[in-house]
């Protein structure tokens, strides 16, 4: 990730400076600054984000075909820890809203929620349970919701989700996840033998033509987006290398 690369380059520059290798130290320091500067530019962050989101663009709900199962992936809600007393909605909570909207529009009879916790958070309530509570609050009947509380990553979403799809006797299925996550998620389900119709949510790329020079000024939120999208692209490449998509 950019911050890690910049930190390593800075530490190497300090080490070289102590060893009186000033020219090499300056080069490492410049690399550190350059990496942080490029990663913090909105134009760089936007292009990385768009490179993923453009692969599956959202459609009006009337253009989405009806299916049997609506599969929604986790990563949408924050953990309920002190001092929170309510379900915490993150930027990706659009996933849950989209699933509820699809159900209410008659686009599926069953919602499969695939969302477990990471190994370091096993003592918390599984995210799938929190998502179910939110879906019910948004008008989905409890009987229509099927939970997978074990999946910890996209690969397990596909394996465990596919098992629930077959158990629910669903022949046509809709997949709901963030637009930037859709390429890896869709390919993962296809790899385990389940064809899904993509319904991207949490779309963050908005094509604008009047941003001007501000797209070339470093911003902290752009650095966060760049890091997140590099992480997702790394996930895509690792999944391909492992034969998971």
Question: Can you describe this structure?
Answer:
The structure is a single chain. Helices cover 47% and strands 12% of the residues. It contains 8 helices and 7 strands. The strands form 2 sheets. A 5-stranded parallel sheet has the order 5-4-1-6-7, with helices on both faces. A two-stranded antiparallel ribbon has the order 2-3. β6, α7 and β7 (197-201) form a beta-alpha-beta unit. The mean pLDDT is 92.
Radius of gyration, whole Å:
21 Å
Helix content: 40-55%
Q: What structural class results from the helix and strand content?
A: alpha/beta
Encode the helix/strand succession as letters: HHHEEEHEHEHEHEH
Features:
245 residues, alpha/beta, five-stranded parallel beta sheet
The gist of it:
This protein has 245 residues and is α/β, with parallel strands linked by helices. 47% of the residues lie in helices and 12% in strands. The chain contains eight helices and seven strands; from the N terminus they run H-H-H-E-E-E-H-E-H-E-H-E-H-E-H.
How would you summarize the topology of this molecule?
Layout: H1 2-18, H2 22-39, H3 42-53, E1 69-73, E2 77-78, E3 88-89, H4 94-104, E4 110-114, H5 127-137, E5 145-148, H6 154-167, E6 173-178, H7 182-191, E7 197-201, H8 220-242
Helix pairs in contact: 1-2, 3-8, 6-7
């Amino acid at each position: 990730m950019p911050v890690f690369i910049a930190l390593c380059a800075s530490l190497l520059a300090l080490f070289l400076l102590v060893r009186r290798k000033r020219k090499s130290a300056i080069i490492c320091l410049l690399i550190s600054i350059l990496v942080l500067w490029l990663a913090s530019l909105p134009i760089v962050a936007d292009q990385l984000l768009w490179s993923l989101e453009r692969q599956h663009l959202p459609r009006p709900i009337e253009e989405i075909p009806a299916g049997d199962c609506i599969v929604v992936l986790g990563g949408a809600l924050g953990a309920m820890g002190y001092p929170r007393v309510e379900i915490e909605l993150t930027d990706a909570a659009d996933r849950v809203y989209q699933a509820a909207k699809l159900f209410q529009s008659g686009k599926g009879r069953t919602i499969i929620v695939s969302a477990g916790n990471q190994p370091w958070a096993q003592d918390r309530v599984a995210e799938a349970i929190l998502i179910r509570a939110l879906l019910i609050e948004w008008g989905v009947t409890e009987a229509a919701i099927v939970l997978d509380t074990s999946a910890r990553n996209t690969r397990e979403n596909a394996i465990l989700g596919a098992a629930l799809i077959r158990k629910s006797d669903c022949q046509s299925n809709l997949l709901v996840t963030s637009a930037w996550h859709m390429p890896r998620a869709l390919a993962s389900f296809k790899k385990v033998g389940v064809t899904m119709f993509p319904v991207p949510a949490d779309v963050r790329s908005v094509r604008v033509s009047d941003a001007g020079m501000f797209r070339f000024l470093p911003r902290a939120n752009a650095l966060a987006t760049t890091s997140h999208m590099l992480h997702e692209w790394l996930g895509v490449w690792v999944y391909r290398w492992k034969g998971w998509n």
